[in-house]
Automatic annotation (TrEMBL):
Keywords: Oxidoreductase. The keyword Cell membrane does not apply. Belongs to the short-chain dehydrogenases/reductases (SDR) family. Pfam families: adh_short (PF00106). This is SDR family oxidoreductase. It is an enzyme of class 1 (oxidoreductase). Its EC number is 1.-.-.-. InterPro entries: NAD(P)-bd_dom_sf, Sc_DH/Rdtase_CS, SDR_fam.
């Protein structure tokens, strides 16, 4: 299942997966254009508003009913806001966060039981470099993608117990519709942008070999690199020793 499946990344990913004989179900907002994209790719299409949890659950149930199982969920739906350095448009901010962050939360919640029933599998979240290095021009996008990465990291231990690996991919600027309004600036600056195919390759890798909770940076000329999160200073006891986190608060890997 690919949410936001008819956009640039979704199309490129669907092309690679169908070539590998994977049954790919594309989900996206219902429109003639989106249905036609799916038809051109030879993929089943299911309309989905990712901000609606019940709709996410219904789509997963339909995939199981029609195809027997769900092995992987690519939570890829997302939008960005108009870039502005001035007043914060709260309506636009909330729209971006609702789609880009809570769409991921709903997707995980809906797909988890099905992938567990299939004997395990993967969830891959399309985050962004903006989630690791926030952009002043689009705080809603930065908050949503940063939140998605944090959600992936915090959910990884419990999903791992179900045999599900969740990870995030964090592309830099890529050649999709999301940069259309500023594409001329990239051209003028001769700034390299990723192809959708490069990002799709990283998405396939994340299904087959990602580490639970990992975030993978994708940059032109660099490739796919696991991001190394810095630790935070540990608390210390009155005697100056490093304090030990209570066992109930530790992930399974630390117990």
């Amino acid at each position: 299942m690919i949410t936001g499946g008819t956009g640039g990344f979704g199309r490129a990913l669907a092309t690679k997966l169908t070539a590998a004989d994977v049954t790919v179900v594309l989900t996206d907002l219902d429109s003639e254009r989106n249905r036609q994209v799916a038809a051109d790719l030879g993929c089943p299409f299911l309309p989905l508003d990712v901000t609606d949890l019940a709709a996410n659950e219904a789509v997963v149930a339909q995939i199981e009913a029609e195809h027997g199982r769900l092995d992987a969920a690519y939570l890829n739906a997302g939008i960005s806001a108009a870039k502005s350095e001035d007043a914060l448009d709260l309506d636009e901010f909330m729209k971006v966060v609702t789609i880009d962050l809570f769409g991921v939360v709903h997707g995980v919640q809906a797909a988890r039981p099905a992938i567990k029933r299939a004997g395990g599998g993967a969830m891959v979240v399309t985050a962004s470099l903006a989630g690791l290095s926030p952009m002043a021009g689009d705080p809603g996008y930065s908050v949503a993608k940063g939140g998605a990465i944090a959600f992936v990291r915090s959910m990884a231990p419990r999903l791992d117990r179900d045999g599900i690996t969740i990870s995030a991919i964090c592309p830099g600027f890529a050649d999709t519709a999301i940069i259309d309004r500023i594409r001329d600036q990239f051209t003028a600056a001769k700034f390299p942008v990723l192809t959708a195919e490069e990002v799709a390759d990283a998405m396939v890798m994340a299904w087959t070999s990602a580490e639970p909770g990992a975030a993978y940076v994708i940059q032109p000329g660099v490739g796919v690199v696991p991001y190394k999160f810095k630790g935070v200073p540990s608390a210390r006891t009155e005697s100056g020793e490093t304090a030990v986190v209570p066992e109930a608060l530790r992930p399974p890997s630390m117990r």
